Amino acid sequence: MLSSLRALPALTRLRAVRFSSHDAPKYNEPTGFLFGEKPPPPGQRRIKQPWESLWYYGMYGTMAIGATFNSFGYTSVQTWALKEAKQRMEARGEKYKYEPSHSSAS
């Protein structure tokens, strides 16, 4: 019984090593082509992958929306909130700028 308990950690280590082993990583030999893609023969166009159009529309569409928001000054929620708070406080007749009171405790 004692000898089988001593062998247990060794078996566990061997099992972990055996199960975690795998083939060596594959190495793609450099071809000199961009992304490993061969250019099409002269007179033919490259065939686009199905995901490429979605990526272009998503990337450039997001940039266009961001540029539009940036040009109109919608850079943060805090900018809008400060403007709205000033308008509401002015409508109630309150001051929105802090002015310290002159106390004699100084």
From TrEMBL:
It is found in: Mitochondrion inner membrane. InterPro entries: NADH_UbQ_OxRdtase_ESSS_su. It comes from the Eukaryota. The keyword Mitochondrion applies. GO terms for cellular component: mitochondrial inner membrane. The keyword Transport applies. Its main location: mitochondrion. Keywords: Electron transport, Membrane, Mitochondrion, Mitochondrion inner membrane, Respiratory chain, Transit peptide, Transmembrane, Transmembrane helix, Transport. It is a single-pass membrane protein. Complex I is composed of 45 different subunits. Interacts with BCAP31. Accessory subunit of the mitochondrial membrane respiratory chain NADH dehydrogenase (Complex I), that is believed not to be involved in catalysis. Complex I functions in the transfer of electrons from NADH to the respiratory chain. The immediate electron acceptor for the enzyme is believed to be ubiquinone. Belongs to the complex I NDUFB11 subunit family. PANTHER family: ESSS SUBUNIT OF NADH:UBIQUINONE OXIDOREDUCTASE (COMPLEX I) PROTEIN (PTHR40637). This is NADH dehydrogenase [ubiquinone] 1 beta subcomplex subunit 11, mitochondrial.
